[in-house]
Structure formats: C-alpha cells, structure tokens
Amino acid sequence: MIETLQMKQNISLKPFHTFGTSVKAAKYTEIKSKYDLQDLIPVQEPFLVLGGGSNILFTKDFEGLVIHNKIKGVGIISENDDEVILQVGSGENWHALVLWCIENGYAGIENLSLIPGCVGAAPIQNIGAYGVEFKDVFHSLEAIDLQTGSTKIFNYKDCKFDYRDSIFKNELKGKFCITSVSICLSKKPQFNTSYGVIKDVLDSSGEELSLKSISNAIIKIRSEKLPDPKKIGNSGSFFMNPIISLTQFSLLKSKFPNIPIYPVGDKEVKIAAGWLIDNLGWKGYRNGDAGVHKNQALVLVNYGDAKGLEIWNLAKSIQISVFEEYGILLETEVNIL
Ligand code: EPU
User: Fold this and answer.
1) Buried-state track 73-109, b at ≥16 Cβ within 10 A, e below 16
2) Which residues belong to the active site?
3) Which atom of ligand 1 is nearest to the CA of 237?
C-alpha cells in the first residue's frame, strides 16, 4: 500500500525542539524515508528540515513548512579486521548511535557521548567535544537536492568541515536534505583522553580504560556541567568559541591573564567564550524564565515559559557586554529563526 504524506496545519513545535519555547509551524509533515522527501520536491514555500531540534532558537512562529526528519536505520556497508563503515539514517538519535557503537566495539565517537540531536545534524555543524570532532570519523553522506530531487554523495573534501562549520551552513544552506551519513570506525581503538578532565574522572572512578568507561566519564562530565534539555530548555553552547589572532590575544592576555585558550595553528587561538561571559558576571543570571546556566555561562536556558525573543534579547545583551569589555564579537552556534 502506498502511504501519502500527512500534512498538518498550525502545529505546536514545543515538543520538537530542546529550548522548549511555545511556537507553531504553519505546516508540518514527517518524512520516514528519502522517498517521502521526493513527494515534497520541489519545495517551493519557506521550509525547515528539523532533526532533533537541539540547535535552534525560534524567535517567532514558523510561517512555512516544517519537514521533520524521521529517517531511520543503521547498516554496515563494509568491514575488515581493522575498521567498519556504517551507513546511518539521518533521523537516528546521535547518542543512541554512540551507545550502539560502543556495544559493538566500534571506536571513534565515544567522546561525543550525550550530544543531543540526530545524526543528520552532526556533519552540518561538525559536532565536537572532548578532543574529538565528527569530521574525524566522517566517510561520506547522501543528500537530496530540495529543488531538483537529485541525489548527491558528498565526500570529506566536499563538506568543507571546520570548527562547528561545513558547506551546509554556508554555500549550500537550505539547499539539500541529508538523508544518510556514513562513518568509519575502528575495531582496534586508540582511546582519546587528551582532554584533561576525562583522565581525572576515569582515575577517580577506578574503571579500566575502555570505550564504555570513556563514554561513562563523558556522560558524567556533561551531566554535571550542562543542563538536561528534558528538564531545563537549552541548546548546549549558545555561542561559538571565538578565534582571534595571536596579536589580539597578547593584548587581551595582559589585561586578563587567566583567559583559557585552545591553540589553532600558529597564528591564531581559540578563546573560551564561557570564561569571557562568566568573567562579566553573567553566570546564573535570570530574567523571568530566560537565563544563563549556573554551571556553564555559554549555555542559555529556558526555565519554563520564556519566549524565544526573550532568550534572543538576553543573547544580544551578552554579545554587547562581551564586545564592550574584550572587543570580541561572539557568533551564535545556535541557529536563530
Ligand atoms: N569556563 C568558565 N566559565 C564558564 C564556562 C567555561 O570559566 O561558565 C572555562 C572553563 O573553566 C574552561 C574553559 O572555559 O577552562 C572551557 O570550558 P569547557 O571545557 O566547559 O568547554 P567550552 O569551550 O565552554 C566546548 C564546546 C562544548 C563541548 C566542550 C567540551 C563550543 C562552543 N563548545 O565548550 O560543546 O562540550 O567544549 O569539549 O565549542 C556544544 O557545542 O553545544 C557544546 C556543549
């Protein structure tokens, strides 16, 4: 039996995004396969492909079509004694995939445990945490052109990965829907514990080094620092860590000797935006139901009934105060709609 896509009108998006603000979509449909997607092509009205909704702030109702990605499935494309290549439906939950890989002894994404969202979003913003970025395991992806319906395979170079960035946030923004993602994982793991705090947590847990123990350590670190979106609305880091020249940094360092940095090549450094915001006293700030998380100043939160616009106004106040103090313009990591 051929099922036709169900189109709904005036649907609340509150359950479908992790900030949990009350917003509506004029039109809404779910896709369970790439064939469902073909039924919508060419997409002519304003549209939004929504995955886990974990990196988005709606400042108003969405006056177009929300295409909710529910494309599932995990399969092995190839494997040998050393590695395995998996093809994963873009609507699969990221953390569930991480746990499944750990169970099967496939290494490479354990440091990316507990990142909310779905698999299709991982390449778009090149998710990263605790010394690992998604691009490190990327093999290829399949995406569909939303105007022509043609399928295109993107290899590593095509994606133009960078820090929380890819071609899908730039030249190809809104042009393709990613339907599946292939990743290459190792069967002979080399554990990545370079991010100091992982080692500390592992040592104190007494657990032996394994994919599972690294994942457990990261789950512990993240749960202590980052609010659980099921309890307090948020989208993880709201801003990106800014990258500035060494010259600008040496001026800043003379005024703020404790700024934490991460090296980037030999001409630039990445600054911890959380520190910049925290140092200005924003951590724990609350205005109505919009606030700055008490343990991580980079995370903005919705304590209940905040409006998207209130969170966005708070974000802009933080941007202004950071710019006035340090001369640095913070860019949002979260997509603002
Ligand atoms: N810091 C403060 N005050 C704060 C927050 C941070 O002083 O309120 C300091 C910390 O003490 C530390 C430094 O800033 O010295 C960095 O903090 P943290 O290790 O928490 O990492 P981050 O730079 O704030 C980035 C990612 C996170 C990722 C962690 C761990 C970005 C924008 N954020 O945060 O990713 O989990 O590193 O690798 O790159 C996300 O993208 O949503 C996200 C949570």
Assistant:
1) ebeeeeeeeebbbbbbbbbbbbbebbbebbeeebbbb
2) 164, 237, 333
3) 42
Alpha helices in the chain (DSSP H): 34-38, 94-103, 121-124, 156-159, 196-205, 211-225, 246-255, 273-279, 308-326
pLDDT of residue 249: 94
pLDDT at res. 146:
95
**Average of per-residue pLDDT values in the chain:** 95
Q: Which of 298, 318, 335 to mutate to test the pocket of ligand 1 (most atoms within 8 A of CB)?
A: 298
Ligand 1 mutation target, pool 275, 285, 293, most atoms within 8 A of CB: 275
Ligand 1 close to Cβ of residue 27 (< 6 A): no
51: nearest Cα among 37, 35, 73, 66: 66
CA of 85 to the centre of ligand 1 (A): 30
Domains of the chain listed by start with CATH number: 2-69 (3.30.43.10), 74-186 (3.30.465.10), 233-336 (3.90.78.10)
pLDDT at 85: 98
The pTM of the whole model exceeds 0.85: yes
Is 299 a pocket residue for ligand 1 (Cβ < 6 Å)?
no
Provide the pLDDT for residue 131: 92
Residues of the chain with pLDDT under 70: 1-3
* Cβ 314 vs Cβ 287: under 8 Å: yes
β-pairing verdict for 62-69 and 24-31: parallel
* Ligand 1 centre distance from Cα of residue 155 (Å): 29
User: How big is the chain, counted in residues?
Assistant: 337
For 31, other C-beta atoms within 10 Å of its C-beta total 22
Q: Which residue's structure tokens are 């340090």?
A: 326
Q: Report whether residue 272 contacts ligand 1, using a CB cutoff of 6 Å.
A: yes
CB 75 within 8 A of CB 92: no
pLDDT given at position 243: 96
